[in-house]
Protein: MRH domain-containing protein
Amino acid sequence: MHCNGVYSRAHHFEQDFLDESNGIWEQGSLFAALFIGPLLPRDRKPTSSRRAKKLATSFVAKATELPSCKESDYHFEYTDCDVLGSRWRVAIPNKPETCTGLPDPIRGTKCTFTCKEGEFLDMRTQECQKCTSGTYSLGTGVAFDEWDSLPSGFVTQGINMNFGDTYTNCSNSTWIPKGDYIASNTDECTSTLSYAVSLKSAGSVSFQYFYPDNHMFFEFYVQNDQCQSTDSQRRWLRVSDSDWDHHYIELSSGNNVLYWRTTGFSLAEDNAKPVLLKNIAISGVSYTSECFHCKPGTYSDKPGAARCVPCAANSYSNKGATSCQPCAADKYSGVGAGSCVQRPPCKASDYFYTHTPCDSSGETQLMYKWIEPKICSESLEGAVQLPASGEMMNCPPCNPGFFSSNSSSCEPCPHGFISNGTECSECPAGTEPVVGFEYKWWNTLPSNMRSSVFSSEYSSTDRSTGWEVAGDYIYTTSSDQDTDYMMLTLSVPGYSVPHSLNEDDGRVGLSRITFVFETKCTAECKLFFMAGQSERNNLVVESWSGTTGKQSYSYLIKSNHTVSFTWAFQRAGVFTMNNENSSDVAKIFSVHLTNAVGGVASECRHCALTGSDSDSACVSCPPGHYMLSGTGLCQNCPSNTIIRPEQSIGKESCIPCGPNTYNNKDRSTCMSDCTLALDHKGETLYYDFSQLGNVTSFQSSPRFTSKGLQYFHHFNVALCGAENRALASCVENVTESKRDVKGYICQSTVVPSEVRGQSVVSSQPFSIGDVLIGVTTEGTFDEISSMDGNFPADSDLPDVIFYYRSRETTQACKKGRATTIRLRCDPSITVKNYISPPSMCSEGTCDGCSFHFLWSSQHACPLCSETNYKEIVSACIQGIQLFTGFCAFGSQRTTYVWQQPLSCIGGVSLPPQKITACITLDFWLKFGVSIGSVAAISRLEYREATRSLAKANEELENQQYRAEKDTRDIIAFLKRIDREKTARIFALEEQVKLEKVKSSEEKDKLRMPEELKTIKHFRQIKASLEADLIKIRENIAMADRSHQESLTRAECKFYMSRIHLEKEAEQKISQLSEEAHHEAVVQLGTVSQTVFRENIRLNEALNYQVKQAEELKRMYEVLAEKNGSLSHLKETNELMRKEADSQLKAKQHEISELTAKLASLEQALEVTSRESRKGREEMELHAALHLKQNCTELDNLEMLLAAREKELNHVKWLAQSIIDQRRELELFFHEALDHVRKQIKVKQQNLRQESMKAYHWRMNEAHAGRCEFPPIQTFLNAPHSTKDVQNDQEEDEKWNKQKNVDISDLSWKQKESLLNLLFAKLNGHKIRKQATPSGFTAPSSEMISSDAEFTQENHSLTFLTQMPMESMTYDPCSLPPLKST
Structure:
């Protein structure tokens, strides 16, 4: 892929060259066409003579139109080198078709021609010329030191990353120019910066880089023409130790592509720190045709410069400068600045206070100083002035382990001495100094501490003072920007564990650092504490944000590579131009580091002494011993206890092991051998977790950061096992340190990645359980709760819980971390890593300090015992024929099967099948027929005998079961007694060792060196007594040696030596008294008396030795008796073991028989399964035929249903037609009814008018006397009127009594009644009185009035056709059966 990129860029260059060549042809330069044409590829030359003619004619036309070319209109370039290493120089117009008459091509310099540093190739003269002032040149190389924008030739791109189902867009994850350098990306993408260069000779590339963060992968490699890349081991760059590191690599001639690639994988909220590049220089190019101008902030004052010089502080320069200009008085600049900046008014944060070294009078001066370099101005308005210095103060005392020399400085005490800060004193015998560094007074910065300042862009600033001493504490000074890091580093050469502690004890850390601090902040400041190999390789151990009260923090050091500690304080994480949080401060009050090489001491510690010579040294107590307070004696701890690693003085340092655990050989930790015995509901359950004891790995569900990076929490577990078992290990494979954390349980964060040839990236390993504190079924132990509610159980068996602790403390976990692993019996789970976290805490923890897991497995079940199986007794079968022909006796099989559900594993095996004799039923039948007279009595007697035999058999089986159980209990009891005796023997051996130590100490006290010196001096004075004294000395030495060899022989020889010495002493005394009595009185004097006293003392010493020998002899006899009893017990145990072995062999024989029977049962089972398989196939065939018939019937029913549905649709259409016709009829009835009512009203009105008119005419006629007066008549339908027009109408409109009535004979009132009656019948209304069936008769008045009343009451009723369709009930089942056609 990269080679394709190289050649694609070469292809673009060729295309550009061809385009320019075409432009030359178009301008008509025949010489350029002649020389350039042969250099072009065949497929790129003019392929047509027509085009040549066209070019020739256009040349003549354009030559007359275009002006002649000037030197500014073109430039020179070289063609590619041919096989002979030669090339041509041709003129290339700056703009096509602007002029004519370009210079002719001429032969150029050799391809191997180069210029020196500070020179460039003048293409016009083809000679090297020196660069002018203000410019520079690398000769055969190119340099990139300005990064205001991406230089030409550089390409940067981000590679999209896919993690599982997630997709990350990395198009914007590129390298970004930052002025003086270029910075990489900071997210979880891969960002590449590449540059392609063609070298004419072997060259090199060099650059400076800053790589501060191990959460970022950084590699640099080169690819050549053959796509050969840099060695994979050399391409990965190491983390920077200082601000900027330099990298150099040689390049081969030809095409080379340089790649800088970074990949981040930070899991924190903050991004990883970017990689920075600057000053990239490449050598090996053939030439450079121009010199480069010096960038702003640099200059070159002489011609021929190879590089530019940066300007000094408070000066500046522009691009291409030959000298630097000083800044004005009210401005300032740093080193290499391109401009000056206005000085701000001085503030209180621009100065700090410190103390001078103590003088001879023990006083110090309080001094105020400007922070250097000083950039503020005191003369501006509002500026503060530097406070006056010189206030005298008492010097603080020296730090512990130091003493004051001449009251002016503090010096460390010599080795073996201690000090509380005033004077040094030597540790007494039997003690040793506690070496380390303890700083709690801050008058001067200690020699092994360094203060520095680093800006947010990781380059050092001009300020070097980040922390300043202040007597009682050390504090952070002001910074240029709030994002600057104020660094304080403490370095030590290494660590040395004291003699009083066991260096091989893995639980004892090499050292511990403790410091007291506080922070006061107005914003989100941060204090980091880091530890590692160097200041730049330190890893963050803990951090604190915001204001933090005065508190202490302690960190345990376990590796001799952790020799550097850094405190870094940052006021703000986001860069701003305003320094708003300059008042934020961090203070450290004290720092205490133990066991440091080259350290000092402030106290002594008791230790055990070797006692072998006068220069006895401190040693550690033997394993399992503690030191008696105030002495150098070691005492053995009680059984099943371990020693507290940080304190081995006093009996309280002996810690008892938790339930179901035991101490290891060194008494340093508690262990579990993966076996367990528990009492549950009156029964003892035995467990064996050895199958789960190996290291097991599992991980949490995938999680994602806020930026979409996928990661897992990976766990390794070593549940239990022997002392030398493999521990769980979590490795960090990001940095070169490959930090490895081991323990019972550890956790690491894993990120899937293909970077660096690794399938995953593992980081942040830490232990969550390095000490086993107990194994129990209780839900709470040692203040640790196992969260029973999050692991609901549906079994009667208890869960076995392993409790662990980790001693490593953090800010969140003040007491360290704790872990519980709950083992649950599940016979259905065969995998060994079925481990799950709580349902409410998917990562195994809810608070980051307490971890809980459920491990379900069949290996977590108890071992099988006799209570887990039952017996099945078969019927009495297979009789044996006797002499009478009866089938008298038979066999009865007893088979043992496991009880279901089975909740055990391993343990005892099923007993073999038993065959016992029995009486068959055939015998009793035949016997009853033959002797019927005594059948009843014999049957009863035989039943009783059979019951007694069955009862006896059952008792025998119970006795056998109890015997087997007693045997197992006895074996377990003997094993337990054996372990106790072994522990007792070990304790007795330790006691014998202690007695031997005491005896040697007492023997050393009896050597009496001063007395021997006096005897030796006496032998020198008296030559006559020299031989006798030598014999006495030899006899004493002989007695001492014989006493050590054998106590019995020493006693005999000691008595004989004493008698011999007494005789010789008496002889010599008598001889001396006779020969030199006067001379001895005069010359010997007090010397003789001294000799006699020493002889008496020696006799007393001998008596004391005799008594001690007798006591040791008695003790030896007692131990011999105990040894004999123990040997007797050992023999008994051996006999029991042999008996158990014989029983085991018998059991194995039974197992083999059961195996054979099992094979026969398997064959029978195979036959049965074959028959069942055949029956199942027949049933399947029958079911298939039945299913086929059902399918046929189902198809017929579906066809019939379709026909019924078709007929139903036709009925629905007919019903709808009928309803439509009925609706039309009802509309006609309504119209007719309205017409009838209108006619009735018109008729009534006309009749009333005519009657009134006739009545008035008759009244007028009667008044005139022409006729009689008519009867009185009313026209208003009065209720009490006897003569009314309405009544007359009603009488006229009454039905006549004719049998047949025509509709025209009816009145309008009668028509209306008839219509109402028809409507009522049409709508299903019940008629009160049925009409006569023959003919049509007029209804009576009652009928008409009732119909009228019904009409008035139900006028608002809705007809059937006017009802909504939803209210009409429809039941397809109520339809009559339809015949399909």
